[in-house]
Amino acid sequence: MLSALAGLVAELRAVGIPVSPTEHIDGAAALAQVDLDDRRAVKTALAATLVKNPDHATAFATIFDLYFSPTPMIKGSESPPDIGSAVGIDGGVPGQNGHGGPSRIDALDDDALLALLHQAIRDGDEVLLRAIAAQLITRYAGMVPGRPVAGTFYLFKALRPANLEALLDRLRAETAAKGLTLLEERLASEEHAARVDAFRTEVESEIRRRLVADRGADAVAKTLRRPLPEDIEFLNASRDEVAVLRDALRPLARKLAARLARRRRSNRSAPLDIRRTVRNSLSTGGTPVVPVYRRPHPARPELMVIADISGSVAAFATFTLQLMYALRTEFSKVRSFVFVDGVEEVTDLLDRAESIAEVAHQINAGSTAVWLDGRSDYGHALDTFAQRWGAQVRSRTSVIVLGDARNNYHAASARALEAVADRARHVYWLNPEPASSWNDGDSVIGEYAPFCEGVFECRNLRQLKRFVEELD
After folding, report:
1. What's residue 420's pLDDT?
2. Cα radius of gyration (the chain)
3. Phi-psi bin for 89: left (phi > 0), alpha (psi -120 to 50), beta?
């Protein structure tokens, strides 16, 4: 058990989940307090001692299944369980012709197996569902021993004959035909959906158990490694990873906003309140033992965000604009601008829109953000911004530019950014490209850097968080 824990901790660290030596010791101590035969209790105890971020729960669950995997319930060469009693039939199984037929699950034909799956999900029979999951894998997954894969294709092949979406629709139709109230029908539908999801998870877990039995936990773990939400690169995120990023962004924005509020309160300095100090000194014989300061009322800073939304960095602009908009409560004013080769203010549009998708739709319909050919032109965009809105930049305005500074070999017009920097409190530049790619090819970030207080590599949420923590 301790060797499994050591493997679990090593893999957690490998994927980026921090686990200190003290937490490793705490995990071992927690195992001494639970029933090791109770897998759920073991998982809960280790999660409580090793996982500190809810965004890491999914990664922990996957890795736990590898190192604390139960013995596979059904192997291809093992005898499947007797299911006659499980389905309430003596001597036979659903879908077989006649009575007194075979009661072993491997004796069912395909149609009977799927009928049994429908019955098990309808009734919520977890034992039967585990047996069916194993049988689907044995029949359809086509697992090849020794192949270094993560099992995703095996999962697809095993579930394809089951057609879980059609099965769920059938269950909903059966529920609707019962004449239930709207609330009862909705609750039943949600319960069936949860059971279908649980069955899909069971099939996935069974595939992993078989992969572990074949190749070992360490080998399977290497094929399953995926970046944590905070390490997913904006520019290379897949559709599924984009959804994960959006979910991770919301709590991050709230946490960062609260941290900024605490920092500004703790850094406040205020002048001495002579009148109250003298009044309080009367209780100490006129000696001002405890000075009293005036309550500070610092003006909240203003924020202007200028984001490149051309095709190369559109995903990056989506997340950073959403984050900055979420921080609006910490600034007296947040104004958002987007550009390609022209520039347009979209503050009002972002107030109404949940994402930048609606902004992009409006731009495609025709706006000043696309001025000429729709290819990034930082020089013209910054010139336009300086001319139209430069006078509105004040000494308490922080300006953040989001983009890769790839200018398609147009003029950089760095003096436009210099004019903005002369009026602003801070100018920051967030670049989603690796720093090793800066000033390479058509990148002109080096021409803008002298007029920025900082140019930051910002490829993922972890780096974005690090930057925002430095804002003041």
Report:
1. 92
2. 30
3. beta
> pLDDT (tens digit, 9 = 90+) per residue, 234-284?
776 666 666 677 677 666 666 655 555 555 555 556 678 888 888 888 888
Tokens found for residue 443: 């990148």
Quick one: residue 216, left, alpha or beta (phi over 0 = left, psi -120 to 50 = alpha)?
Answer: left
DSSP string, 283-346: GGTT---S--BPPP-PPPPEEEEEEE-SGGGHHHHHHHHHHHHHGGGGSSEEEEEEESSSEEE-
CA–CA dist 423, 250 (Å, integer): 32
| H-run or E-run covering 380 | helix 378-389
Show the tokens assigned to 9: 């901790």
Count of C-beta atoms within a 10 Å radius of residue 265: 10
Instruction: Please identify, in words, the CATH class of the domain defined by 239-267+301-469.
Output: alpha beta
Q: Crossing angle of helices 414-423/378-389, nearest 10°?
A: 30
Q: What is the pLDDT of residues 292-337, one digit of tens each?
A: 888 766 556 678 888 887 776 766 766 766 666 666 655 667 888 8
Q: Tell me, what's the pLDDT at 87?
A: 46
Phi, psi of 356 (to 5 degrees): -75, -5
Percent of the chain as helix, strand, coil, to the nearest 5: 55, 10, 35
Q: How do beta strands 343-345 and 302-308 pair?
A: unpaired
- Tell me, rounded to whole angstroms, the distance of Cα 154 from its chain centroid: 25
Q: What values do phi and psi take at 18, rounded to 5?
A: -70, 125
Angle between helices 39-50 and 21-31 (to 10 degrees): 160
Whether 39 shows a pLDDT value over 60: the answer reads: yes
Query: From CA 407, how far away is CA 383, in angstroms rounded?
Result: 14
In which element (H, E) is residue 366 found? none
| Length in residues, the chain | 472
- Tell the residue number behind the tokens 């099939």, with chain if given: 203
Beta bridge partners of 327: none
Supply the DSSP symbol for 391.
G
Domain boundaries, the chain: 2-68, 105-224, 239-267+301-469, 272-298
Residue 331: the pLDDT is 64
Task: For residues 170 and 174, give the distance between their C-alpha atoms in angstroms, rounded to a whole number.
Answer: 6
Which amino acid appears at position 261 of this protein? A
The count of other CB atoms within 10 Å of the CB of residue 458 is 24
